[in-house]
Specification:
This protein is mostly beta strands. The chain has two helices and 15 strands.
Length: 219
């Protein structure tokens, strides 16, 4: 997955530029020498978009997921390049990035969504670049001594209810509270197990709070 701009010059010298451009075009189906002419817009409403829908069209297609225009240049379907494994997003909007990552990564390491459908706190950037920050939901994942540690933090002034999906299967799952030191097993009634991941439903965090999810994987 590449965003914003593709390389069109070689660090070794200009005599290698053509080789670099040919390599990039083979990977992404985009000639990096004309990327300044590229206009991209994600208009679809779906959260999950398959690679085959990331296609290059001169006009919006019936699905309306992704439009790329190359003035004067014949367009090609991105999915025909490199067996669905390469996507270039000239304008990486949050929806475009979400769709591309969902297309390329079948099961992400961690997926966090709202349990009750409410919008999660995030960073909003106004058109003039002003940063409107009301806190965020973030996580860090580390593996140590055979256990997986997921620190999930809510830095906003509002409580959040989350559904947290973790890749893999787990023998044990626990909540660790770094403020109190309390360790509790995750109730089995809160866990949904699939073949390649587990989901902890209704994981709640108060305002300005963080908790660990600690697990030992079976595979």
């Amino acid at each position: 997955l590449a965003t914003t701009r593709l390389p069109d010059r070689a660090s070794e010298g200009p005599e290698f530029d053509a080789e670099i451009c040919a390599m990039i075009e083979e990977l992404f189906g985009v000639d990096p020498r004309v990327q300044g002419q590229v206009e991209a817009l994600l208009t679809g409403q779906e959260d999950r978009v398959s690679p085959s829908t990331f296609r290059a069209y001169r006009e919006q297609n019936a699905y309306g997921q992704y439009i790329m225009q190359y003035p004067g240049i014949e367009t090609r379907a991105l999915s025909e390049i490199r067996r669905d494994r390469a996507i270039f997003l000239p304008k990486p909007t949050p929806d475009a990035l979400r769709g591309a990552l969902d297309a390329l990564i079948a099961v992400p390491d961690v997926r966090i969504v709202s349990h009750d459908g409410k919008r999660l706190p995030t960073v909003d950037i106004a058109p003039r670049g002003h940063l409107d920050y009301d806190g965020m939901v973030q996580y860090i994942h580390k593996v140590k001594d055979g256990r997986d540690f997921y620190l999930v933090a809510n830095s906003s002034n509002s409580s959040v209810a989350l559904d947290v999906s973790l890749r893999g299967q787990f023998e044990t799952l626990e909540y660790w509270d770094p403020m109190t030191g309390e360790i509790l097993p995750v109730p089995e009634t809160a866990i949904t197990r699939a073949e390649d991941h587990v989901t902890i439903r209704n994981f709640t965090l108060n305002a300005i709070q963080a908790k660990f999810i600690v697990g030992k994987k079976t595979k």
